Amino acid sequence: MVDYGKQFMLYLMDEKCYDNYFLEFNLLDGACWHGALVCDCFRALLSKGLGLGIIAGSVLVKVPQITKILANKSARGISLFSVCLDLFAITIHMAYSFVNGFPFSAWGDTAFLALQTAIIAMMVLFYGGSKVLAGVFTVGYTALVYVLMGGLTPLNYLLIAQGFNVPVLLLGKLSQAFTNYRNGSTGQLSAVTCFMLLAGSLARIFTSIQETGDQMMIITYGSSSFANLVIALQMLYYWNSSDKQQKKGKTAAATGGATAAKKPKAKSKKTD
C-alpha cells in the first residue's frame, strides 16, 4: 500500500521533493523565492494538481452545452464558424503537445475538449438541417486526428500550425462574441461551460509555465483566456435578455397553438 502511495506521489513530484516532504518532513524547503513560503516543490506540486484538476473538469466542461442543445433541439445563436475554428485550435494544440512528449497533465484536457467540441459542431450541422454533412464531418475529423497524431505529420509542420493557433483561436472566439452582439443575446450558449473554460485557460497559463516552459503554449493560453473572458462578460451582460427571448419564444409558441386551436365560427346568413 505504501509503494502504491509512493508511486502516485512520484507522479506528482520528483524524487527530491518526495524525500524532502515525506522523509525529511521539511514542508518549507529552502528553495524559496526571497524567503517566501511558495517553494519549488510546492509550485511543482500545485502545477501538477491543477493540471489533473483541469483534466478532470474538462471531462464535463462542455457537457452542459451539449445537453442544452439536446434539450432544446436547437443550436440557435451558436456560430458554426466559431466552433470549427475553436476545434481546429484545440486539435492542433493537442497534436503538438502529444508529439512533443509533454506531460499528459499539461495538455490532457485538450483531448476531452476536442471530443466535446467535435460533438457540438456535429450537432450544429445536424439541427441545422444538414444531417449528411454532420456524418461527413464526423468521419473527416476522425481521419484528421489520426493524420496529426499518428506519426504521419512532421513535428516542424505542427510547430508552424501551432504558430497559427493564436490568430485562429482569437478569430473563432471573437466571431462568437460578434454573433452574440448581433443577436443581442448569447442564444443556446451555456453559462457553466463559458465560465469553466475561462477558469481552465487561466489555470493553464501557470501549468504551462511550470511544466513545459513552452512560450507558444503560454501565449496560446493567454490569448484563449482573453477571448473566453470576453464571452463570459457577454454572458453576464446579456443574461436577462437571453431569458426574456426564451420566454418570449415559448409565449409565442403557446399563443400560436391556442390561435390555431380556436377556429372562428362561420356566420350563417338568412336568405329571404
UniProtKB/TrEMBL annotation:
Membrane topology annotation: Multi-pass membrane protein
PANTHER family: MANNOSE-P-DOLICHOL UTILIZATION DEFECT 1 LEC35 -RELATED (PTHR12226), MANNOSE-P-DOLICHOL UTILIZATION DEFECT 1 PROTEIN (PTHR12226:SF2)
InterPro entries: MannP-dilichol_defect-1 (IPR016817), PQ-loop_rpt (IPR006603)
Cell location: Membrane
Regions crossing the membrane: 78-98, 155-174, 186-206, 218-239
GO cellular component: membrane
Compositional bias of kind Basic residues: 262-272
Family per similarity comment: Belongs to the MPDU1 (TC 2.A.43.3) family.
Protein origin, superkingdom: Eukaryota
Protein name (database record): Mannose-P-dolichol utilization defect 1 protein homolog
Native organism: Anopheles epiroticus
Feature: compositional bias, Low complexity: 251-261
